Amino acid sequence: MSEKTNATAWWRDAVIYQIYPRSWADADGDGMGDLPGITARLPHLVDLGVDAVWLSPFYTSPQHDAGYDVADYRDVDPRFGKLADADTMIARAHELGLRVLVDLVPNHSSSEHPWFKEALASAPGSAARARYVFRDGRGEHGEEPPNNWLSVFGGPGWTRVTEADGEPGQWYLHLFDVTQPDFDWSNPEVGDEMESVLRFWLDRGVDGFRIDVAHGLVKADGLPDATHSYADSKRTDDLPMWDQPGVHDIYRRWRKVTDSYAVEGEDADRILCAEAWVLPVESLARYVRGDELHQSFNFGFLMAPWIAKEMRAEITESLAAVAPYAAPQTWVLSNHDVVRHASRLGYAPQPGPLRMPGIGADDPQPDAELGLRRARAATTTMLALPGSAYLYQGEELGLPEATELPDELRQDPTWERSGHTNRGRDGCRVPIPWEGGDPSYGFGPSEKSWLPQPEVFGELAVARQQGVPGSTLELYRTLLGLRREHRLGRGELTWLDLGEDVVAFEVTTETGAPVRLIANVGGPNVPLPADAEVLVCSQDVDLADGLPADCAAWLR
Ligand code: NOJ
């Protein structure tokens, strides 16, 4: 479909809810979520008012990186069910009016993937090895890695294999865990295989894909040493493993595939969304040029500190960056890789982008009450913005990060690979509480939960918040209902100047007068216009003296 014909397509303003299958709902009581559990709980999302779901990987996997290590791209891991359960889940979601996005992991497979096993069993230089990035080592006996690249999870990015003769041999690249070998995308076999995987899931009816590590597939010719670290980079494309120009050819090819599934006269686009941690924002925007991907996560907004000036700048730059491409911007505050925003915002804000490692029991703890208050205001701000928004499971309950998990229960490879310097991402992945009192707070029929749930999850359970005025769940329902009613995601934004500590803008609506968003980002009370109708406020507060600190409201 051309840019013109999809100007009103569903994904331009969709609110997409991320399900982390391990932790959403457990039907069989083994302590790990599964597809039948998801299917049974889908009505919650209709009640909440979202348009689509994105599911993190549920494919066959040894789970060394929670499923982002795929051993079979065309099947479901027995922990999560069977392929037929995926079909049932997709069909049920569609019956309920929800679209379904699945995760595609094209940068690397699991080391248990048949291709990698074949590569290990084959000789250097063989066709089987050429599907991955195998190289001879440096040094007299090849004992040094081929270059200085590091794993994102910590430690070296290369591992040496033992060859058939029992001697140490070549090295293979893994930008993530040692069990996640990188594919070699300069080999056409890899591209053909991934296109076939795309088609496999499109044929089963999925509405799109979230593309894992979308900026990593192509590596610079010759695999030169990196001159600085990822964390210190202001431009991701000056590193030889990220954001190389060749990735865009891959996405042009995929766009043709998804477009070929378009149905004339139906709002049925199948979409592609990049997970690309790319700087600057103009480089990120290149992923959503008209003939490439539909969306790309905008992590700059997620990383903006709770400082009005920085939030305003981030929003302005984000919108300007996609404007030339007629693509919608996306907004996200939490996901399975970052500290939940109800906890992240519970620390004193520091200027500059926020990259926060996992939190342990002996680290300074966030102020839970303040964090939740700011999180509700941040979400109230985000859901007024034009474009598409992503929510992460449990944020609608105001769940905090689990900051006191015992270290011996941590499963994120980051904890080990960083030499116990980064606690990793388990704290945002704890199973969801559905009913307050039941075993595992209703996560499943047994008391089992693959990570222990903090006690506070009991009072934050869905059933405890449903219908309770002022609860975070009811705030989300109200915001999503109003956003849909006024089609705020389709609106145009105009800034309002209400002072240094305020984020304030007006968004045009399809229902008449614009809606005004006013967020008081930690400053003195902000007087509200006397004639304004308050559509929703992030806190149940008396507004007679103005909008208090760390609150946001929609006015008309
Ligand atoms: C990004 C995913 O979101 C993360 O969870 C995963 O560990 C890495 N990619 C590697 O696949």
Descriptors for this entry?
single chain; 556 residues; alpha/beta; Oligo-1,6-glucosidase, domain 2; five-stranded antiparallel β-sheet; globular; binds 1-deoxynojirimycin
Describe the protein in words:
The radius of gyration is 23 Å and the shape is globular. The longest helix is centred in the middle third of the chain and has 16 residues, at 188-203. It has 556 residues and is of the alpha/beta class. It is 24% helix and 14% strand. The chain contains 15 helices and 18 strands. Strand 15 and strand 16 (515-520) form a beta hairpin. The chain has a domain at 114-173: Oligo-1,6-glucosidase, domain 2. 1-deoxynojirimycin (NOJ) binds next to loops.
Segments where pLDDT lies below 50 for 5+ residues? 1-5
CATH C-level label of the domain at 114-173: Alpha Beta
Task: Report the count of strand segments.
Answer: 18
Q: Classify the fold: give the CATH topology of the domain at 114-173.
A: Oligo-1,6-glucosidase, domain 2
- Overall geometric form: globular
Mean pLDDT: 96
Which CATH architecture of the domain at 114-173 is right?
Alpha-Beta Complex
Number of helices: 15
Give the quaternary arrangement of the chains: single chain
Main sheet: strands, sense, barrel: 8 strands, parallel
The proportion of strand residues reads: 5-15%
Within CATH, the superfamily of the domain at 114-173 carries the name: Oligo-1,6-glucosidase, Domain 2
Helix content: 10-25%
Radius of gyration: 23 Å
Strand order of the largest sheet: 11-10-9-5-2-1-13-12
